[in-house]
Amino acid sequence: MSKPLLKRLKCIALVSFMAATLGNSPAYAQVHGMYTDKAVYEPGDEIEIYASAPQATTLSFALIRHGASDERVLNTAAVVVESQPTRVGSFAEVEGLSLGGRSAFTLEGWWYPTLVGGDHVMVAGQGDFERGAGITVNAQGQLGAYVDTGAEVIRVVQDAVLAIDRWHHLALSFDGAQLVLYRDAQPVAVAAAAAVAPVAAPFRIGASARAPGNMSGIIDGRIDAWALWPRALSAQAIEQRRLRSATQPDAAPLPDEVDLYLGFDDPYGRILDRSQHAHAVKIVNHGSPRMVGVHEDGFSLRLNHDQLVDAGWARTATLRVPTDARSGLYSIEAPGFDARDKRWPPLQTSVVVRPKTDGEKSRIAVIVPVNTWVAYNPWPGYNFDGPPDEQDYFPARQRTPDASETVRSANNSAYMTMGDGVSLALFQGWRRPNRHTSVASTAGYAFDLRAKLSLETVQWLEQKGIDYDLYTDWDLGDARLDPADYGLVFVHGHSEYWSRRALDHAQAFLDAGGSFLFMSANAIYWHVAHGDGHQVQEGRKWPTFVRPTALGANDRVLAISGEPSGLWELIAQCEDAIASPTLLHGATFDILTGGHPTTFGRWEVEDADHWLWPSGLRDGDRVGQSRYEDIFTVGHEGDSYVPNRPPPGLAAGATVSLLATGTAFPASVVGKLRRNLAYQPDCNEIAAVHAGLMSPTGERHIAVTEDTRAGSILYYPHRGGGHVLTIGSTAAVWALQSDPAISGLAERAIDCFAYQRGCHGEDSSLPGPPGDELDEVDDAAAGLGGQGPGHCGCALAPPAGDAAGLIVLLGLLGLLALSRRLRAR
């Protein structure tokens, strides 16, 4: 059988299985993985482990510390890991409210559908399409309503397909004898009916009684101003309700007029019933609160059939971090577990152990960018950056029954739309399996943008004997880094998502005399906020979204914090009180080369005599060698210095030192350049076009050549008395264990910034690469294709005849360096 035919048959079988699942099963099968209750712990804390396997499996979990070598700290007792149900989809559920036994009522409110058809959904009501009563849309996209009288189920259906991407006022009016369905205050279907039979199902807006489970029965879109009246409203009264809620941001009836009123304009974390009954309201699977409502100044709640912020699994096991545990990067693993289904994360995840709050501290605080790990997690949906077979796990749908537009489901990352094809996932949670938290990278050249870069960082620090404490960006936002304890904050990897609190504390740390080392790019890019003790992260990517996703200015306001969201660079331009935060590190996002290391370039040294560079370099030398031949480290993204935009914290009378610029990118790379950021946003325009953020020429994507210069290494003294060094590449730390120039640069910065040694050319206790040897490297012997003398981004290869003598010499130099380090520290 041919491979293409086999793949087609597998896809047919998978879709058939999922179609059957949609109709019958209350939860997805074969959804497995592992997560912990949070990302960061202190010695003595208990770690809660949540795991699911395709079938019952007996195993134990190991706590492993990563550094120069891996250390197994402890194991749990053997436990049975079973397949746990994963119930998907968001909706509102009202406690203590029933339509059963009523001989008259009116259920009315607004819906902005973004997907109709392909499934039978409950817009509002109580029941499962057979019991109770409610407003529905069938698999053909037709609006309907029903009442179960006990003797029969009375149904009405409108022939036309309900239009998407616009607001509709819907109403079901029932007087005990007649059922009338209204759309936009116009009666569209009428039927005779009797009183509603008793029903035990929950009252819901956005889902049938069968949900949550396999994404069926749940609507997509925004809901606003839903009311349950204890009487049948006339056509005139329904039109008045429609007009009032369309023209007023708050159209609440009097509390004693209704049995329920949900306006969805409440603070984050609360949905209040403003009727006299004050029913408790629960939002299942979070939803997206405080979206623009029917009135542009009002708010609504967005629901999606495939939303999942918290997996909601039962706890599988616990382990306690030893009270004497060292701060560092740890993994929780299930040794020997065979994932079988490679589309899902294995039973392995990384966590951070920070030092005790009242314990001893190092002088260096290293920040693990868990915000980015969370933002990139699509679980339980497909991996947008994964192989094609990972993207076919969930069945595709059409936005309308007669549309040709196919949309995928269940991607809950900050980078893709939900299953309606237009709604960006605004909320991500830690409590889900996440392959980006795994240090066991299977990517090309063992390069991975998330946890693997943190592993590279701590390995290098421990190989060099540099003491450090490990934190997360959650801790930076919680002001756990006291300048009295730390001289240096080390930001590494893909530190893209920053809260205002983290940014404020970083600026305060610098103003108090602290220093920053950035080995990162696309840094401090998106503004996020955290709720539920960091368990929920919210980011609204203004101005990259356009209609129909965004309906007004409130769509760019973070529900959790009430702050404007989007690009920090543009927020700064729209708020006079904020200095450009992306210039905290002296650079701004400039180039996207692509995620594969074969697209990465090198740095060309521009100020070889600067005191931060190790000796032996010359201007024009190219550095940034990875551990693989002909693979370098200026990529996946690069941040560049913009000369006409000096950092706001630059010390008076000082200048920025540009130490190197990325270049020599492979000719096949296609990237986007935003140099100079000439774009000035209309701060009141929610639908700004992202193309305006690109290059001064207005081109969205520009071919990157070997002569392109982007991705800076720069230094500047801060007004607070400290220092800032930026090595502006996402992959920068990938060079630490293989490139002596980048390693030496980072070491010198650490020695000066954290310990005030070796600053401005003074004698440093940290040895750099031997200066003369850098000039004597033979490029051909190093296997780098004759890149010219002085290239130091390679493994040093001595002439074969002198190997033994050089090894002895290097050994003596190493002992001398170790002796100096011990005396200094």
Helical amount among residues, as a percent range?
Answer: 10-25%
- General shape: elongated
Number of helical regions: 11
Number of strands: 45
- The low-pLDDT segments are 1-29, 385-392, 686-700, 763-825
Query: What's the rounded overall pLDDT mean?
Result: 82
What is the CATH architecture assignment of the domain at 91-303?
Sandwich
Calculate the terminal CA-CA distance, rounded to whole Å.
67 Å
Under the CATH scheme, which class of the domain at 91-303?
Answer: Mainly Beta
The largest beta-sheet arranges its strands as 30-26-31-33-45-44-41-38-39
Beta strand %: 25-35%
Taking Cα atoms only, what radius of gyration do you get, to the nearest Å? Answer: 30 Å
- CATH fold descriptor of the domain at 91-303: Jelly Rolls
Structural class: alpha+beta
What kind of sheet is the major sheet? 9 strands, mixed
